[in-house]
Amino acid sequence: MAEMTVELVAVERRLWSGSATLVSAQTTEGEIGVMPGHEPVLGQLVEAGVVAITTADGERIVAAVHGGFLSVTAKTVTILAESADLAEDIDVEAAKAVLSESGDDLEAIAVAKGRIRAVERA
């Protein structure tokens, strides 16, 4: 099966890097699915979005991303997020607490909603 190199990077750290067969991400133009050999594209990630990666080994990596860009070439996909969390590292109860306690902090609410969606999709 064809593979591509994928990197998921947030401002503060690299979350995942490796070979994959499929990447899906939520962009401002809609959800995009990328397989090896995809036409080059640059997309803006939505705030509080979800990125899912199917690795070459068949594992599914899901992350909550908050803003940033998706860059696709024929052999690589680079996801550059303002902030991101792998679903396996997300504390759902803490995210729910943020929702109930954030008041007018729309960015904190959006990040918490994105984290909850990532866990639900994992």
TrEMBL record:
It comes from Rhodococcus wratislaviensis (Tsukamurella wratislaviensis). It comes from the Bacteria. NCBIfam families: ATP_synt_epsi, PRK00571.2-5, PRK13442.1. Keywords: ATP synthesis, Cell membrane, CF(1), Hydrogen ion transport, Hydrolase, Ion transport, Membrane, Transport. It is a peripheral membrane protein. HAMAP family: ATP_synth_epsil_bac (MF_00530). F-type ATPases have 2 components, CF(1) - the catalytic core - and CF(0) - the membrane proton channel. CF(1) has five subunits: alpha(3), beta(3), gamma(1), delta(1), epsilon(1). CF(0) has three main subunits: a, b and c. This is ATP synthase epsilon chain. The gene is atpC. Residues 4-84 form the ATP synthase F1 complex delta/epsilon subunit N-terminal domain.
